Amino acid sequence: NNSSLTITYSDIEGGWTGTGNIDSDPLFCNANSSDYTLGENSLCVGTGENGTNMGAFGVGCDSLYANLVINEIMQNPSAVNDSEGEWFEIVNIGNYAADLENWVIKDNGIDTHTISSSLVIEPDDYLVFGNNSSSSTNGGVIVDYQYLDINLANGDDELILVDPNGVVFDSVAYDGGPDAGGTFPDPTGASMALQSPELDNNVSSNWTESTLQFGDGDYGTPGMPNYMSNIELDTSFVNFDTVNVNETATSTVVISNTGNDDLVVDSISVYSGGGSGRYSLSFDGDDDKITITNSSSVTINDYLSIQAWIKISTTPGQQKLIGKGAGVNYAGDYLLGTTGDGKISAIINTSNNGWAGVVGSTNLPLNEWTHVSFTYDGSIIMLFLNGILDGSNPLSGTIQTSDNDLIIGSADDGGDYFSGLMDEAGIWNTALTQSQI
């Protein structure tokens, strides 16, 4: 027929100036997943005929924002001249992308620069702005956008980010540091790094000097989360003195993590020099065991290595050395143990093979310190005796994890107790090479 459709209100981006057109991002909740409902702060909400919402699906999620934070500033590089290697970084900690075209970078003086091309920063993304985009001459920085007419003073200065509507979106005013009577860091050859993008970046105590080296030798983390390795370790020995039979003793080593990310422990070792004839852990084969509470450091689902020194005086039979969730029903992760005829065995629970592993070909020697270990690299499990390959089996898949504790000296549910001495037990979340073992 000859009927026509009249559009009174619309949201068409790209500069179209028709009557009733908003020309703005509609703020769909998740267009990438075909969710075209609107965020609560969409300009399409309540702007249709008689205050109705534009669009067919209505409001489907909370307000969506880009939240841009000036997160890192390199105002005084050392590897190159300031005129070649100044840069700063922003991060989007919001839940919506922002196109920075026509945004302004400035200070409180005469420095100003307008971003003249499309520059999109997605949620959780980092963008690096620098005065030189050549990584071969700027100290090794990958710069996302090269600006002009902006100088980052080595003393006090400001860095201001202004949106196209003239609204100050974020700003930092650093004060030149202690030498200038200020309180901000004032490093040379290192960036100033915000300890967390959630913190107020105009509070000097929230900034610190970068300690991670990059590029041509300066320190910073351009284009990635800031990293501060503020980890303090009590290095005193764990000394139990004399612990009598049927008594217990406790000693604590304190690790304090005041950095800005989780501390990942890639191995746990019990060392008392047993292999050198000094001290070791003694297991009576009756009820002795060590329990290490389940944590991320022993919950490993990718590559794995386990090793220990052991000394036995009689043929051990089936005993458990080190295992996580390895009980009678094998409802767990991994296990290093011995077989009924005195050989070493290792089994893991993978997504492709279930519980499977390898048995060694060599009988354990009596009254000798013996190094036992196994590794898994996602394609093969290998067993080593005194650093020599003693058996292997092709396996694949990720290691299935459980909430069970790590047990040294017995099965997870009791039984199969180890009888002998053990020293330098260790677990790694990587597949050690034979030379490393």
UniProtKB/TrEMBL annotation:
Transmembrane region(s):
none
Q: What keywords were assigned to this record?
A: Disulfide bond, Signal
> Which PROSITE patterns does its entry note?
LTD
Pfam families linked: Laminin_G_3 (PF13385), LTD (PF00932)
UniProt keyword annotation of Nucleotide-binding present: no
Position of the signal peptide: none
LTD domain location: 50-176
Keyword Nucleus annotated: no
The protein's name in its UniProt record: LTD domain-containing protein
